[in-house]
Amino acid sequence: MKSATPRWLCCLLLLLALPASGQEGTVAGTVLHSSSQQPLPGVRVSATSPVLQAERATTTDAQGRYALRLPPGRYALRFEKEAFASVTRADVEVRAGQRLEQPVSLAPTLAVASSSAFQPLAPFAPPLRLESDGVAWMAAPRTGDIRDRAPPWAMPQTPVLQMDSANQFSLMFPGGKPLRDSDTRGHGVNPTIDTEEERVSTYTFQVSTASYALTRGYLERESLPAEESVRVEDFVNSFDLGASGEQVGPFLLAVEGFPSPGRKGYHVVRVSACAREDFTDVGVQLEFERGAVARYRLVGYENQSATPEPPPDDEEVTPVPMAKGACVTAIYEVKLLRPAIAFGTLRILYEQGENTMWRRVQMLMPSSTLRSSAAKAAPATRLAYVAAAFAEKLRGSYWTRTLDWARLQALWGEVGAPLTERPDVVELGALIRKAGALDQRKDRYGPASSLSSMDADNVPGPGK
Fold this sequence. Notes:
Blueprint: H1 5-22, E1 25-33, E2 44-48, E3 56-59, E4 65-70, E5 73-80, E6 87-94, E7 99-101, E8 104-106, E9 110-112, E10 118-120, E11 160-163, E12 169-172, E13 193-194, E14 200-204, H2 210-220, H3 232-236, E15 246-248, E16 251-259, E17 267-275, E18 281-288, E19 293-299, E20 327-336, E21 342-351, E22 358-366, H4 379-394, H5 405-413, H6 423-438
Parallel strand pairs: 1-7, 1-8
Antiparallel strand pairs: 1-4, 2-3, 2-5, 5-6, 9-10, 11-12, 12-22, 13-19, 14-18, 15-16, 16-17, 17-20, 18-21, 19-20, 21-22
Helix pairs in contact: 4-5, 4-6, 5-6
């Protein structure tokens, strides 16, 4: 009799589960090539909605078919495939027990202009305004203004586009390679950029952990490091955040954000890229949607801007390699303008092997990745922000005025287990405590009473 009990329990659980599954509906359809009308296999189809705790996703089969079972509600469906422009279907209503057909056509990201020429949909190019512009440089002043000197990507050059054996487009820039990082003549705090002035931000993947190690050594000797020696990107990338995210070509890309604890009206956005293969040169570009984002700031990477002038013909420009399994993270501060399905596009430009052509992958940054609170973000995202805020606090950044050391310590504790049990993260907490105890600097931007009227968009000018 006892041996039959588990079978009865299993039957009972099955009967209870049947009505629940019947409450779901189905979204299905076929994804076709917009020109040939042939089925597209391997298209990623994802659904996001307030009724879901996390997105649901599937991929199309050999016949281009897909099917997703979803609870009743309204959804945003996203269809993505490398070398094709992504398509989003908003406000798709799913009803219990019903099947909804949603056929979709995807167009290649590069359209044929003639039999021998191709035109990119969104050319990959560094921004016309660099993040390093407007920085209060802490080193010796540079001769002239960087805007008076033409960067290499502004030189006359014609992009050449070719298709390889895997039906992927390759992009080659004759006469030069974009996204070189050689402008290391100072280290200040990046300004906030208005998307009406420039909506494209770039940085390279050339980071180290040297600045964080140097800071640790100073604090162990009971001293604060020099502000100009602190580099945010070194702090953030000193911690293993895990290789997670969405597979886009040979990369894993992760984008996630939450309301900034220190800057009113802004979201902190973590952007991570992990290499699944080895690359000889790689760079990244974010293009923000003007209709969704009013302003943005790249936190760190100030010493990595495009080469201000082309190198001599006999000088070899050092590439930025990326090893298989390596991950690089950047933190942005973003001020949202209005709701949108996506707030921007993330693009990676990469090169494999010597004398090869550039290739590009891209991914929409959906607004669904911007959480309503830090508690709903992944622990890795919270850890990346704490590391970045720690570095900015040491630098005396205007944007951390409202974030005192006690609050920063509390944010470290809110990273949560298991990360706060890891030795390197435990050490980070100890370093934050020690820095807070040692910091006797006065607020260069005014008394504490001025915090309530602090401008969240602009650094005050001299004498203010």
